[in-house]
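User: Here's a structure from my thesis project, written as structure tokens. My advisor, Dr. K., wants to see whether a designed sequence matches the one we expressed. Can you design one independently, without my sequence as a hint?
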């Protein structure tokens, strides 16, 4: 294999980390601008792999960034952990405030391939027979909403993946293991139904501090 091709392959393997750390001149940039490649400057990412950050609670975003920096939360390739570690500690709150004050994204319109009645029931009512709380009890109607992310108008596939990761204890940074406990009670059909229903719902505005 020619040397230029080998070099190209090597660079591509480490591109997300190298590009952020060494190849992009970040002088004069706002700290949230380094997040834009994946999440968009307005926090309304176009790819389902990357969550929509727009309008998410500031306190929740701060916790996730701190958890990534401390390796308490990892995504599949550890890119977020690596990139969060490049943020100065004082920039975490700046990034979180920026995305939390962006306009809420529009709900999904192409998520009709799952069991809508099942998703709606679990999202709004849960299942008392299994001690399964309604998703809305925390993610829409909580008395302390800044602790919980919006999952309405989030990417369907992202919601489903987080539920699967909580169920498999791949993601473990939920306070007191609450989400791991909830997700463990869901089967694949229920996860798909909840994700599709939530993605199609309009995100309620929350009062900014």
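Assistant: Designed independently from the structure alone:
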């Amino acid at each position: 294999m020619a040397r230029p091709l080998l070099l190209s392959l090597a660079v591509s393997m480490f591109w997300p980390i190298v590009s952020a750390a060494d190849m992009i001149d970040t002088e004069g940039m706002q700290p949230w601008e380094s997040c834009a490649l994946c999440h968009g400057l307005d926090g309304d990412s176009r790819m389902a792999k990357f969550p929509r950050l727009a309008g998410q609670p500031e306190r929740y975003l701060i916790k996730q960034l701190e958890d990534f920096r401390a390796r308490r939360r990892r995504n599949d390739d550890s890119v977020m952990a690596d990139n969060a570690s490049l943020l100065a500690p004082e920039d975490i709150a700046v990034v979180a405030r920026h995305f939390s004050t962006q306009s809420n994204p529009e709900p999904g319109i192409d998520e009709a391939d799952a069991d809508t009645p099942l998703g709606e029931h679990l999202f709004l009512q849960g299942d008392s027979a299994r001690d399964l709380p309604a998703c809305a009890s925390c993610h829409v109607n909580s008395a302390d909403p800044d602790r919980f992310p919006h999952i309405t108008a989030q990417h369907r596939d992202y919601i489903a993946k987080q539920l699967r990761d909580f169920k498999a204890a791949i993601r473990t940074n939920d306070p007191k293991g609450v989400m791991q406990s909830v997700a463990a009670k869901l089967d694949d059909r229920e996860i798909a139904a909840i994700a599709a229903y939530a993605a199609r719902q309009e995100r309620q505005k929350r009062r900014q501090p």
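When you compare it with your expressed construct, this may help: Residues 83 and 194 are 30 Å apart (CA to CA).
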